[in-house]
Design a protein that fits this description.
Keywords: ATP-binding, Lipoprotein, Nucleotide-binding, Transport. It holds the Pfam family ABC_tran. This is ABC-type lipoprotein export system, ATPase component. One of its GO terms (molecular function) is ATP hydrolysis activity. α3 runs parallel beside α5, α4 packs across α5 and α5 runs parallel beside α6. This protein starts with a strand and ends with a helix. It has one domain: 3-Layer(aba) Sandwich (Rossmann fold). β7, α6 and β8 form a beta-alpha-beta unit. The mean pLDDT is 91. It is 37% helix and 28% strand. The protein is an alpha/beta fold and 238 residues long. The structure holds adenosine-5'-triphosphate. Adenosine-5'-triphosphate (ATP) binds next to β1, β2 and α1.
């Protein structure tokens, strides 16, 4: 479903070039829930942004549903992203002057979906993320965990092939983190949506099925989460 091949990325600032990712290869099957684990600066966000089509890599290919997004022009990529890719941000990124329901419906507004259909889908998703009564409130009236539930619902409304989540529980306390991860796991199972979750926390990665570990821009390990469970902590996370 997702295939990364020979992916490298360097940032250029004036005369200086920083190589951030080097020859990364992996694949993710449809319906998998995968963690991208690594310490700060290891290249996780860069990899996520490349896979989500937010930037072009220096080298390599990224196939989503058999389409190489690296080769797409801006217009095609924008259309492909609207249809196939969902994104969950650490800081939720909700629009403050729209209601919760309007925020969830927004991706469908860009697809010119009929208002009655949009509303129906948003209400169903509000139920699925456990906040059925919050639709007419504004984001500022919700807790952080509730705002992240809204952001999850928004990412799902277009029924994308894959959802990329960048430290989705990074702003939340442990109890709320557990709730959000439980919701993601449930949605992964029931909707068969593929999730790629960036985290620097081993405990979060452990909640997924498969862990890809980055270290200094290199893919260090790619293994089922259960295998990682058997390693001593210092070997599992750097
Ligand atoms: N626009 C940029 N220009 C130059 N270097 C950059 C740029 N963006 C990121 N980098 C560098 O790339 C490396 C990887 O950054 P990245 O944000 O991908 O890491 P990360 O693993 O997501 O870290 P964190 O967990 O702290 O977010 C870092 O050394 C960073 O300084």
């Amino acid at each position: 479903m997702l295939r990364v091949e020979g992916l490298s990325h360097a940032f250029k600032n004036g005369n200086e070039t920083t190589l951030v990712l080097q020859q990364i290869d992996f694949r993710v099957n449809k319906g998998d829930m995968v963690a991208l684990l690594g310490s700060s600066g290891s290249g996780k966000s860069t990899l996520l942004n490349l896979m989500a089509g937010l930037m072009k890599p220096t080298e390599g290919s990224i196939y989503i549903a058999d389409h190489n997004i690296v080769k797409m022009n801006e217009n095609k990529l924008a259309e492909f992203r609207r249809e196939h890719i969902g994104f969950i941000f650490q800081a939720y990124e909700l629009i403050p002057n729209l209601t919760v329901r309007e925020n969830i419906e927004l991706p469908l507004v860009f697809q010119s979906t009929r208002p009655s259909i949009r509303k129906q889908k948003a209400l169903k998703l509000l139920e699925q993320v456990g906040i059925p009564d919050k639709g007419e409130m504004f984001p500022s009236q919700l807790s952080g965990g509730q705002q992240q539930r809204v952001s999850i619902a928004r990412s799902l409304i277009t029924e994308p092939s894959v959802i990329f989540a960048d430290e989705p529980t990074g702003n939340l306390d442990t109890k709320t983190e557990e709730e959000i991860l439980a919701i993601l796991k449930h949605l992964n199972k029931t909707m068969n949506t593929t999730f790629i979750i960036v985290t620097h926390e081993r405990e979060v990665a452990q909640q997924t099925q498969h862990i890809i570990t980055l270290r200094d821009g290199l893919l260090e390990k790619s293994q089922p989460a259960v295998e990682m469970d058997k390693l001593p902590v210092e070997e599992a996370v750097h």
